[in-house]
Write a structure and sequence with these properties.
Order of helices and strands: EEEHEEHHHEHEEEHHHHHHHHHHHHHHH
Bound molecules: adenosine-5'-triphosphate
Distance between the termini: 43 Å
Helix content: 40-55%
Shape: elongated
Number of strands: 9
Structural class: alpha/beta
Largest sheet: 6 strands, mixed
Number of helices: 20
């Protein structure tokens, strides 16, 4: 007999399901209230209209409706991740505050890295979400427990990317269960799961609700409905068509099956009684001051987050073949080009080749820039949904960006040092002391750092890795043209000169040229080409290299600051919109 053909029994509460959380302490679930919520979405107009209902602690609320009815938008609005256009959403009687570690949101996308083994991924997730001082043993215990609860123990050592779609979905949910969340929002958690796995997942959510957590989910799977406590049925126009017990759904529309309810709702039917009773009973005129959903436990400190994120970024980089190929390939390719492009001995004071010396300095500056830019471009756009999700859980953007710098900058320094060492060994750079090479290395590393910051900014600003790749020529061309190497800055018209001020490559080129002593070489070297070239370049290399270093460091800090602001905005405005794309 189909479930909807009979009066609904009480929701399934299997005693055999392992409890979702380790502690016997009851969870203080979040009280959610939606009152006459309207929601406009750019490009789609009004998606939700006057939606009112409560989602209570210890209960599972399921949002259903036809495709495009606004279920995901409602879920995000309830979670406080979209501010309603009209009406209000209250968390514990107050406007939603910034979510924290005990706020779980599982969007339809994967929100965990794919490269690392599942257990390791969860250990990092736990470290970032659990309060400072949580012992490593406790973290391991929690990870083991959620793996067990979600039947993933035997997949613990499998890279997340090698899990099946259903397993990955459960893995995303596992990350949210680590903290005994007060509230858990899930966008279509059972889609793509086989019926047995889906039923098992609902049992896990039931056990979480029994501990006190407020659970809200969307679904298209009819079998999920009787396993929940409250159904919120949206009409295709985003109005509330029904809210109440699953058992009363069919009767409220005077039909026999849930499919017929969908048809009735599509035809404009609404179950008036159940809708109006709740909206009318609410008193939301005087919400408590302040905001709710603030983390009830302290989030982990900035330094701890930075350390964890740095370790994880290193592990991810190590495992990501594309990144590894870019990291290793660029320096090798550039050294090879140097060797075939330039003859040795250009810096020999007895017979210098001034034009070549300038070009070598330019290409070192550009190589350092290129390393930094390419390393940075792939860093954020490849994991933006994860960043957004972790921001919701309390991870700060400052430590996140600092972890990127801490992971990538040492690699850039190694690439720059290798470049200089190989060029010296091949006699493309002069025989000079540590002072000169210290200056060249500092200039190159700062050029790479500024380019890394530019790459991170572009990576944060674009929507996906494909767009980041398109940015590469866009960012490189002006750095070449306005560097002052091909057309010396004193020879540029005013607009060109102004643009050159904004090019990090210009400052790196000048600092490198100054550090290696181009000016004295050209002035006093044996080549007659030196003095006219010097006249053309004017005072390009006359300033101490430290001036260029200061400018490059300033650019790096400025660009990192802008990256921080862009990421903060993206996290605030679109923490969960990755599926919808905006
Ligand atoms: N970022 C966005 N930009 C433009 N339109 C959007 C965006 N997000 C949602 N929409 C639109 O809002 C409406 C509701 O979308 P939503 O994803 O909430 O529907 P849904 O009921 O969850 O659909 P489905 O069951 O297919 O997932 C749709 O018309 C959708 O196209």
């Amino acid at each position: 007999m189909p479930w909807h053909a009979a009066r609904m029994p009480t929701p399934m509460r299997p005693r055999s399901a392992p409890t979702a959380t380790a502690s016997s302490e009851r969870i203080d679930g979040l009280r959610i209230r939606a009152h006459r919520v309207d929601q406009d979405v750019r490009g789609a107009g009004r998606v939700l209209r006057e939606v009112s209902f409560d989602a209570d602690p210890g209960r599972i609320t399921v949002i259903v409706g036809s495709s495009g009815a606004g279920k995901s938008v409602l879920l995000q609005t309830l979670a406080g991740l979209r501010a309603p256009t009209g009406g209000r959403v209250l968390h514990d009687g107050a406007p939603p505050g910034r979510p924290g570690p005990r706020f779980g949101f599982v969007p339809q996308d994967d929100v965990i890295h794919r490269e690392l083994p599942l257990r390791r991924t969860l250990v990092y997730a736990a470290g970032l979400r659990l309060p400072p001082g949580t012992a490593p043993g406790d973290i391991d215990e929690r990870v083991d427990r959620v793996l067990d609860v979600l039947s993933l123990t035997d997949r613990a050592d499998t890279p997340v990317g090698a899990l099946s779609g259903g397993e990955r979905k459960r893995a995303s949910i596992a990350a949210e269960l680590l903290t005994r969340p007060r509230v858990l929002f899930l966008d279509e958690p059972t889609s793509g799961l086989d019926p047995v796995t889906a039923a098992g997942l609902l049992r896990t959510l039931r056990s979480l609700a029994e501990d006190g957590t407020t659970v809200v989910l969307t679904t298209h799977v009819l079998a999920d409905l009787p396993r929940c406590d409250r159904v919120v049925f949206l009409s295709p126009t985003g109005r509330l068509a029904y809210t109440g017990e699953p058992a009363d759904l069919c009767a409220a529309f005077g039909v026999g099956t849930v499919e017929e309810v969908y048809e009735a709702v599509a035809g404009g039917s609404r179950a008036q009684d159940s809708m109006t009773s709740e909206a009318g009973a609410m008193d939301v005129s005087d919400p408590a001051p302040g905001s709710a959903a603030a983390p009830t436990r302290p989030r982990s400190g900035a330094v701890r987050q930075w350390l964890l994120l740095t370790r994880r970024a290193g592990a991810l980089m190590w495992r990501n073949r594309l990144t590894a190929a870019v990291l290793a390939g660029s320096p090798v390719m550039i050294v090879a080009m140097f060797v075939v492009l330039f003859r040795p001995g250009a810096f020999d004071a007895s017979s210098p080749d001034p034009g070549t010396t300038a070009m070598i300095m330019f290409w070192i500056a550009f190589s350092a820039f290129f390393f930094g830019l390419t390393y940075g471009l792939l860093q954020i756009c490849t994991e933006l949904p994860v960043v957004r999700r972790e921001w919701i859980a309390g991870v700060r953007i400052g430590p996140y960006l600092a972890s990127k710098v801490a992971t990538v900058l040492p690699l850039l320094a190694v690439a720059d040092a290798t470049l200089l060492a190989v060029l010296r060994a091949l006699d493309r750079l002069p025989a000079a002391g540590w002072e000169v090479y210290g200056s060249l290395f500092t200039s190159a590393v700062l050029a790479s750092a500024a380019a890394l910051a530019l790459g991170l900014l572009a990576s944060a600003a674009v929507g996906e890795p494909g767009q980041a790749t398109l940015m590469l020529p866009l960012l490189c061309f002006p750095q070449v043209l306005f560097s002052g190497a091909f057309v010396p800055v004193p020879r540029m018209p005013l607009p060109g000169e102004v643009i050159s001020w904004a090019m990090t490559n210009r400052w790196a080129f000048e600092a490198l040229g100054s550090g290696v002593g181009l000016e004295p070489l050209w002035r006093r070297g044996a080549s007659p080409l030196g003095p006219p070239l010097l006249r053309s370049y004017g005072d390009t290399f006359a300033h101490p290299a430290a001036r260029g270093w200061l400018v490059l460091a300033g650019f790096a800090l400025l660009l990192l600051g802008v990256t921080w602001a862009v990421l903060a905005r993206k996290c605030r405005e679109g923490a969960v919109r990755s599926r919808a794309g905006g």
